[in-house]
Amino acid sequence: xxxxxxxxxxxxxxxxxxxxxxxxxxxxxxxxxxxxxxxxxxxxxxxxxxxxxxxxxxxxxxxxxxxxxxxxxxxxxxxxxxxxxxxxxxxxxxxxxxxxxxxxxxxxxxxxxxxxxxxxxxxxxxx
Length: 127
What we know:
With 127 residues, the chain is α+β, with helices and mostly antiparallel strands. An eight-stranded antiparallel β-barrel has the order 1-2-3-5-6-7-8-9. It starts with a helix and ends with a strand.
């Protein structure tokens, strides 16, 4: 058996192991979340909704901060489900990403128009 055939068989075998795990983890991201966007830990809570809809192919849709999610993707990295997407308002695009950590999401948003990066935490509102 050639070296390239061995590599292909190994990739197929590893993929068949990883895909069920990915399929089980992505739905954990799906649902309605409440995101706390406070600028500092001492600031009062600043809560905004986030709805994540994860398709079986990893496409992510929904809404964040009352704006539709554009070009969203979800996947499992290092054994945990993560995502990234873009939204936009009058100030410009926002790039958002996050990962499921236990029962919550830890994420960050970069505002190109307002020139800030904000880390945040989200809790499930309902699935």
